[in-house]
Amino acid sequence: MSAINQCNADIELQHIYLEVYSERYSHLRTFLEAYYCYQHGLVTQQGKPDWIQIFNVGKRTVAAAHIQERKLLVREMMMPLSVIIGHFKTLVRDDEATIESIKAIIDDHLEYVIMTRDEHHALIKAGVKETMPASYYQPLHNDYRRVNTRFDAAGITLLMS
């Protein structure tokens, strides 16, 4: 990663920290996306975050594997934003919200999946667009902490990397 992208990623991380520390979560999606773009070098010629490039680097579903036309595809966070925010809220509650702890959560959980519009509707229909299935939180279940759980619940298969 170039030095300027690293600097910009650090600035976005500080924005995220300030929002989390202040318990203001409404704009986090924008800051997280910008952070992801800078971290992965997805920037315009002017050095601004370029979310369209996420379509080129995100994990693909089997159905989206050979589709190149962006208008037929949707980008979705691997882990729903509400779950990531839940991790942030736990840090605040436990008075452990630091830039390093927030960065660790982001680096562990922020990834994008590129899927078809039909698959996106399947996520919505299965009720897992903004949440993880209950089995994700149950330690004795096979789906415990499996990030693919919500896609499995919607009948969506991710390509193996």
Q: How would the global form be characterised?
A: globular
Mean pLDDT, nearest integer?
Answer: 95
Strand order of the largest sheet: 1-3-2
The sequence of SSEs as H and E is HHHEEHHEHH
Classify the beta-strand content into a percent band.
Answer: 5-15%
Point out poorly predicted stretches. Answer: none
Task: List descriptors.
about 160 residues; 3 strands; single chain; three-stranded mixed beta sheet; mainly alpha
Could you explain how this protein is built, in words?
This protein is mainly alpha-helical and 161 residues long. It is 45% helix and 7% strand. The chain is built from seven helices and three strands. It has helices at 3-21, 28-39, 54-57, 81-93, 99-109, 117-125, 149-153, and strands at 59-60, 73-77, 112-116. The chain has a three-stranded mixed β-sheet with strand order 1-3-2. Helix 4 (81-93) runs antiparallel to helix 5 (99-109). The two termini are 22 Å apart. The mean pLDDT is 95.
